[in-house]
Amino acid sequence: MSGEAGQGTIRRVALIGNHPPRICGIATFTADVESALSERYPGLAVDIYAMNDPAGDYDYPSKVVCTIGQ
């Protein structure tokens, strides 16, 4: 994945949003974006920062590197 003119290569991106197993449309969207990026750019590291709701204690997959309280 190339950056802007002469800026080099993007090696890592961060996605911030809900993520399964939390059940909501944004969680599904975040997972789909991660999947599409990983498929299209296999060398790209995609870190996911998941938003937790106040009552949520989710068993996230290892690709979720951090959680943020909503």
**Oligomerization state of this entry?**
single chain
Counting DSSP E segments of at least 2 residues, the number of strands comes to 3
Count of DSSP helices?
Answer: 1
Beta-strand percentage range: 25-35%
Low-confidence stretches: none
Q: Could you describe the largest sheet, including whether it forms a barrel? A: 3 strands, parallel
Shape: elongated
The run of helices and strands is: EHEE
SS content category: alpha/beta
Proportion of residues in helical segments: 10-25%
Question: Biggest sheet, strands in spatial order?
Answer: 1-2-3
Integer average pLDDT: 89
The value of Rg in angstroms is: 13 Å
Distance between the termini: 31 Å
Strand and helix map with partners:
Blueprint: E1 12-17, H1 25-40, E2 45-52, E3 64-69
Parallel strand pairs: 1-2, 2-3
Short synopsis of the structure:
This protein has one helix and three strands; from the N terminus they run E-H-E-E.
Please tag this protein with its features.
single chain; 70 residues; alpha/beta; three-stranded parallel sheet; 23% helix; elongated
Could you please describe the fold and organization of this structure?
This protein has 70 residues and is of the alpha/beta class. The chain is built from 1 helix and 3 strands. Strands 1-2-3 form a 3-stranded parallel sheet, covered by helices on one side. It is elongated. The relative contact order is 0.23.
